[in-house]
Amino acid sequence: MGNINNVTEFVLLGLSQNQKLEKMCFVLFLFFYLTIVLGNLLIVFTIVSSPHLNSPMYFFLSYLSFVDICYSSVTAPKMITDFLTEKKMISFVGCIAQLFGVHFFGCTEIFILTVMAYDRYIAICKPLHYTTIMTRRVCGQMVVASWIGGFVHSMIQTLLTTQLPFCGPNEIDHYFCDVHPLLQLACTDTYVVGIIVVANSGLIALGCFLLLVISYIVILVSLRRQSSEGRSKALSTCGSHVAVVILFFGPCTFTYIRPSSSLSEDKMVAVFYTVITPMLNPLIYTLRNEEVKSAMRKLWSRKVTSDGKSKG
Question: What is the pTM of this model?
Answer without folding.
Answer: 0.88
